[in-house]
Design a protein that fits this description.
single chain, about 180 residues, mainly alpha, about 85% helix
């Protein structure tokens, strides 16, 4: 009954227990990280500064509530000892990551990839604009050519009419010339 499957099962259980222990250690370190690093008499200053940074990023209603909590905790009890731990507990319940501060700074300076993308977008927009302008010019040219051909065709029809005997119709030609002169003046 204790073959390879049983040993595999035990190995997996050991790895799982090890993982759980690591998870507990990480959580305990996260709780202690602010109580260990700051001197006891300056904790309230550091925490107030962190709270102000959070307030800038958060919506107005949320920041007012957290500011009130912080002020009550600091003003109501004192500046050191157990009260600072209370502030640490309030602060640790709020979600704040140092990554968000770093990323805001990163976006101010553009990477070469971002610059290249922007350059590409500019070139692409310029090409699209030129293509649209060329299309407009082409349509205008075609419209002008159609109008010109239409006028030419009308003039040709009038000037090429013949009498019954096959002679050019001078009356129509004179009327056409008269219309042309009247349009020009």
């Amino acid at each position: 009954g204790r073959g390879f499957a049983f040993r595999r099962k035990q190995k997996i259980e050991r790895q799982y227990r090890k993982l759980l222990k690591k998870g507990r250690k990480v959580h305990s370190q996260q709780d202690n990280q602010f109580t260990d690093t700051y001197p006891e008499h300056l904790k309230h200053l550091y925490l107030a500064e962190e709270e102000m940074l959070k307030k800038r990023r958060r919506a107005p209603s949320d920041s007012v509530l957290s500011e009130e909590k912080l002020n009550k905790a600091v003003d109501g009890y004192g500046r050191c000892g157990y009260d600072c731990l209370v502030i640490v507990r309030i602060w640790s319940t709020c979600t704040f990551s140092h990554r968000s501060v770093v990323t805001e700074g990163k976006f101010k300076k553009k990477t070469s990839n971002q610059k290249a993308k922007e350059e590409y977008e500019k070139i692409k927009a310029e090409r699209a604009r030129k293509r649209e302008e060329a299309e407009k010019r082409k349509q205008q040219r075609e419209a002008a050519q159609r109008l010109y051909k239409q006028k030419k065709m009308e003039a040709y029809k009038i000037l090429s009419k013949k009498t019954k005997r096959g002679q050019p119709n001078l009356n129509l030609q004179m009327e056409f010339l008269l219309q042309k002169i009247q349009q020009n003046t």
